[in-house]
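Reopening this one. Same input as before:
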Amino acid sequence: MTMKGQETHGFQSEVKQLLHLMIHSLYSNKEIFLRELISNASDAVDKLRFRALSDASVYEGDSELRIRLSVDKEKRTLTLSDNGIGMRREEVIENLGTIAKSGTKSFFESLGPESAKDSQLIGQFGVGFYSAFIVADKVSVRTRAAGATEDEAVFWESVGEGEYTIADITKADRGTEIKLHLRENEDEFLDAWRVRSIISKYSDHISLPVEIETTNEENNTTSWEKVNKAQALWTRDKIDISDEEYKEFYKHITHDFSDPVTWSHNRVEGKQEYTTLLYIPSRAPFDIWNRDYKHGLKLYVQRVFIMDDAEQFMPRYLRFVRGLVDSNDLPLNVSREILQDSRVTQILRSALSKRILQMLEKLAKDYPGKYQDFWKEFGLILKEGPGEDPTNQQIIVKLLRFSSTNNDSAEQNVSLDDYVKRMEKGQEKIYYITADGYAAAKSSPHLELFRKKGIEVLLLFDRIDEWMMSHLTDFNGKSFQSVSKVDESLSKLADENSEEQKEMEKTLEPFVVRVKSLLGDRVKEVRVTHRLTDTPSIVTTDAKEISTQMAKLYATAGHSVPEVRYIFEINPDHPLIKSVADKQDDIIFGEWVELLFDQALLAERGTLDDPNQFIQRMNQLLIA
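Same output, byte for byte:
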């Protein structure tokens, strides 16, 4: 083999780490390397088919697409070849020398000694090609891109220890050939029957023939024998497909090593004709929160692969869903731009969104434990739904899970159905509180009245929660009410219109006026409250005012934040309030009021504008 332009390159540092982790982490399940290589070859053939839709010349007179494997026991090699799209030199460097996913470096840095043993983490990368090094101590690649000349083929080789060699060669046919030089003690992969069994196990569903070379010992001739069924799995009847086949197909299209939680396979006929196969993964990819995270479904038109990551069929709050859609109504030359404006796309998006939500409803009802595992992985993403999808909002709301004062745990496992069933007699609203964290929410003084009355409150402490609640008005006829906002139902709970309380408020009126005079425009109002039992004072906001958590959201997003105008509420039964009310010295009185106000702000916001002044004031009053 004549080579020109030979160069040696170092792997991207993340590739070095990945190779090391993979060889040591996946060794117990090493046969998956063959699944990964066949899956990549299948993708290469799909891409050629798509290219041929607009330029049939890429077939170069060879339109019988296939994947082939051969074993050479003497040379200890296993060779896999395809006649798919192939690669040019720059594509080889990009695809076999780097990992393009953003956030990879920080992810690897976060892996500790124990995590390094976790094959599930390694499986998040779609590492197909590199899995060859689990069983091979050298891998050689020969590839020629469709449309390139015979002299524009590329050779790549590496022993997987930090460097690879690349050169220009001559290759008569298009496509890619990968030759694995097997390690010692990997003789099982030199056994044609063993290789055949792996193909049957992992690649039966692939829609093109996977062939293995066989030798007739009588006349010493060789032939190619098809091993798999070579029928696209989603085109088969559901009754003929086993759960294991569905799981393997999921791993084929996602390169995820974990089984999916659930899936749905449907064929729709009528005005629209399409087939869908949708999966809910069991684990979130490490980069799902990155802005450039690619989501969406594989799109096929009349069984012809068109594109990966067709995000137009799935709203962003369902970006964790994997799978495919095969439409009979879209044109074969469809582009992302055409999809964006297509009526067919809009109908499919609506139908698929409902289908996914129904899958989640069924999972929550029939397998609550599995649903809870799903929620831990993807709940934060699903919380984007109420604001993004008003049409399906009531379905989404039923799927939400919350922490609450009913449990002594931060785990979000309370549904709104659970909450409504436990509501006290006469309770008018669903009460909730938003805070920066579970501890802050659970210990908030706003909950004192509810503990006293035995009323459950939902504890919301994810950053998105305040935004989510701003889009929710009611559930099953019960409206939502923040316990940190002024509301008539809260006054009713606290019996704030009793004669005894009115008399107390009248007695404290001079004190309230004195406090309001001192704080001035820093507060919207000063009033007596009967909602507190252990806390001297709190701050609340009017129903129409921006909340504390929403103001924090604005600030985090870099927007200008309107000033929050708080109502300062005072507990007349607290000994500290009674003591301060008796202070005649205006300076000492002022210091105590400032301290009480800062305490209330600190409990509400978690921060103060001038914490040092607060500390000095408290110290002075302690020694006074």
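So the earlier flakiness isn't reproducible anymore. For the record, The mean pLDDT is 88.
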